[in-house]
Amino acid sequence: xxxxxxxxxxxxxxxxxxxxxxxxxxxRPDGYHTIESLAVFTRFGDRLHLEPAAxxxxxxxxxxxxxxxxxxxxxxxxxxxxxxxxxxxxxPPISIRLEKNLPVASGVGGGSSDAAxxxxxxxxxxxxxxxxxxxxxIARSLGADVPMCxxxxxxxxxxxxxxxxxxxxxxxxxxxxxxxxxxxSTPEIFQRLERRDNEGLPPPPSxxxxxxxxxxxxxxxxxxxxxxxxxxxxxxxxxxxLDKAGSGFSRMSGxxxxxxxxxxxxxxxxxxxxxxxxxxxxxFVAATRSIAWEGNDGVS
Length: 300
Known about the structure:
Blueprint: E1 10-27, E2 33-52, E3 57-61, H1 75-86, E4 94-99, H2 110-125, H3 132-142, H4 146-151, E5 155-158, E6 163-166, E7 174-179, H5 186-192, H6 210-217, H7 225-231, H8 234-244, E8 249-252, E9 259-263, H9 266-279, E10 284-289
Parallel strand pairs: 3-4
Antiparallel strand pairs: 1-2, 2-4, 2-5, 5-6, 7-9, 7-10, 8-9
Helix pairs in contact: 1-2, 1-3, 2-3
């Protein structure tokens, strides 16, 4: 339970999730697809502001907050309520404000990352004392992507995306994220897949740096990308724009429509973002860096 000596408010990052590679390897009897994905998380994302209140409250701000549901269907409130249900204590009211900086339904795990951030923050604010495995079990009940967002570090995700294995020694990456301002339906893309029994990911390089990672990515796929490009041709235009801006490697993330470009340095990524934004002012464009494995702060 909270005490008067504890912090009265907290602001936390809900980082964007970027699937550097995503292989669809099968389909279970329950309809869920099995995958293997190498994912990283960026220093850019949504932000959540939490503080004790006389009664529960929830609000949404930010450039992409318009039109999002602010009722119990929102993953933020589902995460809050799931944590309450899992805790034996009578937990006090909380005010949560979601600052929505990521495009909605864009393949970068925005809602899942929001839910994971809420679980971690409220576990501390409410002194629930739940361990990582207990939080992961709650996260799994909220959606396949929430457990990997709970980890929020470089990882390989398998199963339906809910089994995660962090990759030690993974450096920060310079990335540019681009979205054309259109939502893409994940269920529709999975439904339209021509093949669901692809091979898994090859083993990642033993020493990861810009060049070795780029070469490895060339041997991998995002198996959702061809279908997504057929539904939303703007994805192809984004990839061309990233390549024209000097990306070392460009690909769609998740089920799209957000695409990423991998750059050798942060300064090169920033210049590329400026160039793309100048040519396409209506697009969402963000230069950022991924969150490295603990203790590894840069591309080596």
